[in-house]
Amino acid sequence: MSTIADVAARAGVSKATASRALSGHGYVSEETRDRVRSAAEELSYVAHSSAMSLATGRSLSVGVIMPSLDRWFFAELLAGVQEGLFAEGYDLVLYGIREGSAERARLFERILPRRRFDGIIAVGIQPSAHELERLLRVESPVVSIGAYSEGTSAVSIDDFAAARIATEHLIDLGHRDIVFLGGQPDAATHAVGDRRRLDGYLAAMAAAGLDDRAQHAAGAPTMPGGYEAAVRALGDRRQRPSAFVGVCDEAAIGGVVAARRLGIAVAAELSVVGIDDHQHAEMFSLTTMRQQPRLQGSEAVRLLRARMDDPAAPPEQIVLPSELVVRSSTANAR
Amino acid sequence: MSTIADVAARAGVSKATASRALSGHGYVSEETRDRVRSAAEELSYVAHSSAMSLATGRSLSVGVIMPSLDRWFFAELLAGVQEGLFAEGYDLVLYGIREGSAERARLFERILPRRRFDGIIAVGIQPSAHELERLLRVESPVVSIGAYSEGTSAVSIDDFAAARIATEHLIDLGHRDIVFLGGQPDAATHAVGDRRRLDGYLAAMAAAGLDDRAQHAAGAPTMPGGYEAAVRALGDRRQRPSAFVGVCDEAAIGGVVAARRLGIAVAAELSVVGIDDHQHAEMFSLTTMRQQPRLQGSEAVRLLRARMDDPAAPPEQIVLPSELVVRSSTANAR
DNA sequence: CTGAGGCATGGAACCGGTTCCCTTCAAGCC
DNA sequence: GGCTTGAAGGGAACCGGTTCCATGCCTCAG
Predict the structure, then answer these.
(1) Superfamily in which the A61-157+300-320 domain is placed by CATH
(2) What is the CATH number of domain B159-291?
(3) Which residues numbered 86-105 in B keep a CB inside 8 Å of some CB on A?
(4) B69 to A79: CB separation less than 8 angstroms, yes or no
(5) B17: buried, middle or exposed (CB in 10 Å: 19+, 13-18, 0-12)?
(6) A109-157 residue pLDDT tens
(7) Is the CB of B31 under 7 A from strand C?
(8) Most CB within 10 Å of its CB: which of A31, B74, B160, B228?
(9) Phi, psi of B40 (to 5 degrees)
């Protein structure tokens, strides 16, 4: 692999001039620039990123911290972030860190300070005070997604409102016995957004005077999790709910599958609404609150770029809209 | 952020000694080592990765190229790779590149040569001759997953055998009209593994003298793709198949959902077998050929480490086993 | 007593870029 | 004609580490 010294020698100029010619900073004559460029072309020269990073102080890379990779929301988000960063010429360095794991400490203590990232995108992670302090030492701008952090820029939807609107949709259809499906009651592992969605559901129930009928069938925010929670909720024939609000579409779809299995007609006997507009939602005719994780990812990149270009700029929090998409999994209560 | 010069000054030694004390290479007295270590501790010193990389020639990072992030197999794989790399102290730099996109050229021309990766993991990508040449210039070892590349180390399952065994399972149950569900007929976008699975299905059909009954309901290798293909295949009431082999579990589950929708009893009237053992397979009681993408990911890391430690070592191809998991989506033909 | 060899350390070169600063030269202006 | 100004480009410092080499000391064998 050739270095800039090779290019300079071949073009008959100094390293300094070669660097200026290729980067476009400083004065270089038209003719010299062309000579350097073709020399670089001939040697198929590509600048060494570490050397560049060391000299300029910018690494052209962004660290991305994710609590999980195998759920739809996070995978879509990651895809959006990746596309955005790649388009801007930044590399994405991925850390998949389960909440509260030992690796998490190592990440904050050693890994993040070692690479000087130009920026950090943290997804669904509520950094502890100590971790936040470590992040600030690194001095790279942070954008969090779905975590409502105060000090940093942030992207999210209004989880509270989304769940409230979904629940109101069911209430408007005449439903009274509405169960919230999925989500862990344990606060430590409960994703922040899930907690807010549960609160939104509770608020809607309370506003309709249905406080005492509110019920949470806990479970993992996944299809099997929703399935199991639904089986439990539907098990009692005497007091069967007439509608589900899923903590996410995966849980809601689990509920749909469970209902079908138990011979309960979705819509006619049981309305189900989710939150996400998952790629499978349409297939299951699921009514849901649409959010667009890919868009959230690319918005996060946009916010990050803004802060990288001007570190003095104040952090910006944006809340993306989510809208009710009515399909045929919801119908009037009987 | 402090540098090694700060640490050296605080410990009262030279940069050289400080470096040796911290890295453990070369002679340093016990007492000096301790002094340097506590100086580093007090300054919360962390070595600058670019400087280290420039000096040593090793970047402690691995490039990972993936064709998609939103499918279960790839997400699981990525999780396995990520865990493996993190445990070994390597960073994962992610590139999500759609087959044949413009970004792909940029990746091979500029991005990969710029960063000097210590290794590259390419998933489901068949590099062109020109791309392979670029990869070799970079001189970092490559491990491919699921792509059967000759020059490089590789990890995969035997896709051909997996589909053959799945199909034989159905034939043994007395099925004759077996449709292969999902997978794109277009060779350019058809993932290599999907093609091999189709071939395995065809071979099993041929071996049982069922060549003329073999039928491929094409579609995306996803749940909606399988759903649509199944609806088409089940549409003709006169010639309804008695069994599906899904190109993957997602397609197979799409088939199960389609059958339920159409009022066709899975197992009793229609057997369905998939390939993957997807996280949702159990929920749908799907009989399937189990493969473990996480394991494939960590094995890929192991192979990569082997080649990084000894570049002269010959590339190693390993084929991981896949086994038939019989659940209740398959039954004797009527 | 001398020389060899292991240990401990410091100085300086080096990795491959970028950028500051200085020199040169030509054009423009008073 | 002398001075200012700006373009063009070279030398060298610098980013923050690692490592080669030289030096001094101590021990031990001959």
Answers:
(1) Response regulator (3.40.50.2300)
(2) 3.40.50.2300
(3) 86, 91-96, 103
(4) yes
(5) buried
(6) 888 888 889 999 999 877 777 777 777 777 889 999 987 677 789 999 9
(7) yes
(8) B74
(9) -60, -40
